[in-house]
Amino acid sequence: MLIKYLICPLLGVLLLTSTAMAELKIGFVNVAKVMSESPQAGNARKELEKEFSPRRNRLVSSTKEIRKMEEKLNRDAAVMGDSERKKLQNSIMKKTREAKRSEEELREDLNIRQNEILGRLQKQIFEAIRELAKEGGYDLLLTDGVLYASDGVNVTPLLQEKLRKSF
Questions:
Q1: Of 165, 152, 157, 167, which is closest to residue 34 (Cα–Cα)?
Q2: Is 80 exposed, middle or buried, given 0-12, 13-18 or 19+ CB atoms closer than 10 A?
Q3: Contact, 29 vs 141, CB < 8 A?
Q4: Among residues 120, 101, 109, 136, which one has the least CA distance to residue 27?
Q5: Which of 52, 90, 114, 125 lies deepest, with the highest CB count within 10 Å?
Q6: What distance in Å separates the CA atoms of residue 78 and residue 110, rounded to the nearest whole number?
Q7: Nearest Cα to 126, choosing from 144, 114, 151, 112?
Q8: Closest CA to 162 of 40, 27, 25
Q9: How many CB atoms are located within 10 Å of the residue 12 CB?
Q10: SS3 at position 26
Q11: What is the pLDDT, as a whole number, of residue 11?
């Protein structure tokens, strides 16, 4: 008799839960994939490359110049006068310091710009996700932390297409 009173309500709850779950529309978005493969991400990479390549090229050129000066010092140190050798050594140290400072400034500026662009891109992607959820009638869209999502709930291709169209 006690089993009858426990099993009936439990079955009722299970049936209600399963019908309520059947009405939910759930999807999954692989945000990392969208961020790396969207045309907006490609455009951001090109923008960064265009902005920072001149400074990178100057840094590479400076490094080559320092290397040539070091080779000259190693090769000709024995035949150089004391003052000429010290002058070349000081010049190498000065250029090396300047190159390190330039490299650090470049790295900091690049990180700042990457973060700005990444933030802007994330904002665009999350807005597109919200629009996709509303347009598709989704009750729940999941992103990070999902261990498995079948192709039936994976809406990443739909989001990528939406981003391509808005680009």
A1: 157
A2: middle
A3: yes
A4: 136
A5: 125
A6: 42
A7: 144
A8: 40
A9: 10
A10: strand
A11: 47
* CB 25, CB 138: distance < 8 Å: yes
- How far the first Cα of the chain sits from its last, in Å, is 66
| Residue 144 host element (H or E) | none
> For the ranges 79-83, 93-97, 131-135, 149-153, which has the lowest average pLDDT?
149-153
Ranges of H-type helices in the chain: 2-23, 31-37, 39-76, 82-136, 156-166
43 φψ region: left (φ > 0), alpha (ψ -120 to 50), beta (else): alpha
Q: Could you give the CA distance from residue 142 to residue 149 in angstroms, rounded to a whole number?
A: 9
Note the pLDDT of residue 22: 58
**Token pair belonging to 111:** 């990180």
Q: How far apart are CA 103 and CA 52, in angstroms?
A: 11
- Whole-number average pLDDT of the chain: 84
- The amino acid occupying position 129 is I
**Residue 21: alpha-carbon gap to chain centroid:** 35
What are the residues whose beta carbons fall under 8 Å from the beta carbon of 146, sequence distance 6 or more? 28
